[in-house]
Amino acid sequence: MPPLSPNPGQTTPAQAHRLAHAGAAVLLDVRERGEFTAGHAPGALHLPLIALAAREPLPPEADGRLVLAICHSGNRSARAAQLLAERGVEVLNVVGGMAAWERAGLPVTTPGGSGSSSGSSSGGGGNSRDAGDAI
Fold it and tell me: In angstroms, rounded to a whole number, what is the distance separating the alpha carbons of residues 8 and 118?
């Protein structure tokens, strides 16, 4: 396997949605818990940047898969992507974050199923990590 670039690549929200929807990658939302629960991409895993920086392990669903790091605007996820790349994880930063995701009209899971969610309101129910909640 070729060595990973020290600078992770980037992807658009539309491409990230296609990759995640096809099962070719997993979305990793690195926002704080309240931001995540207020609305996130369907199926996104959750691990706040502060927990990632503290070397918390990735959710098991991300093991050996392409990770698409996403936050609100793309700044925290860029840092998360760098941290993950340093760990040897294949990772791309979602440029523009959830703000760009929503502007692109992509689905969002919100509490109670409101908003532009396409599917179950449980979205990330079983895959949300509470790492960092006590921080």
Answer: 30
Q: In sequence order, what DSSP letters do the residues of 20-84 get, joined into one string? A: HHTTSEEEEE-S-HHHHHH-B-TT-EE--HHHHHTTPPPPGGGTTSEEEEE-SSSHHHHHHHHHH
Which secondary structure element, helix H or strand E, spans residue 91, and what is its range?
strand 91-94
Output b/e per residue, 26-61; b: 16+ Cβ within 10 A. bbbbbbbbebbbebbbbbbbbbbbebbeeeeebbee
**Tens of pLDDT along 32-59?**
999 999 999 999 999 999 999 999 999 9
Catalytic residues, by residue number, are 71
C-beta of residue 70 within 8 angstroms of C-beta of residue 94: yes
DSSP strand pairing (91-94 vs 45-46): unpaired
